[in-house]
Amino acid sequence: MITIRYYHVEQLVRPETGWERVKAYGMYGLGQDRNGGYQRLADARKLMEEQAESWMQNLNSLEQTDEVKKLKKDSRWKIVSEDVTFTHASYYMHSDVVAYEIVKVISDQTLEVREMKTKHSAANLEFTPGGFCGHFHDQDKQEVTYESDPEGDTFRIRRKKGKPEHWTYKGMRFGLRTAPYAFHDFNF
């Protein structure tokens, strides 16, 4: 397992809504969404400054009523950190996803992984006949069972340079997960 610290920007621009998390730019990693977190504190600081400047410019362009003045005075931003422990990885291959478990942490750039045994069931999915053979609906609700495979082969995945959420092995695309995740496209 590997623990990664994420930095999130939160804003309080309307007291009645409370603190809200700001979605970070360019966070389209594979696998589990980190809710807009950055792995570098400097990136979070930059986002916080941009958000504050944009909000104040917006308020300055409005008629300066008492409400606008109050919003300007009460608006605040902060950076919060979150440590996330990843125990699994998923291999993304077209529409299917294969579950792997993290066996060993070599470094913060290299992990050793092993494929898990999985069984996919479409028994609980709605099926509509027609076309070539039919269509399964709500595939994201398919039932999947996971089992560790101690006899399976291991290999090393590496963090892709410049893209901290992307991991690769011989062109294969991986994303880290806090729990096993696999998906089979029954319609393909």
Description:
The protein has two helices and 13 strands. It has 188 residues and is an alpha+beta fold. The protein folds into two domains: 2-85; 87-177, no CATH class. The chain is extended. The model is unreliable at 29-33 (pLDDT under 50).
Task: Please sum up the structure shown.
This protein is of the alpha+beta class and 188 residues long. The chain is 15% helix and 43% strand.
Query: Order of strands across the widest beta sheet?
Result: 4-5-6-11-12-13
Average pLDDT score: 85
Unreliable sequence segments: 29-33
**Shape field:** extended
The ordered string of helix (H) and strand (E) elements is EEHHEEEEEEEEEEE
User: What's the number of domains?
Assistant: 2
Assembly state (oligomeric): single chain
Major sheet: size, sense and barrel closure? 6 strands, antiparallel, barrel
Helix content: 10-25%
Distance between the termini: 33 Å
Derived from helix and strand composition plus strand pairing, the structural class reads alpha+beta
> Approximately what portion of the residues adopt beta-strand conformation?
35-45%
What is the rounded Rg?
A: 22 Å
How many β-strands, per DSSP?
13
Number of discrete helical segments = 2
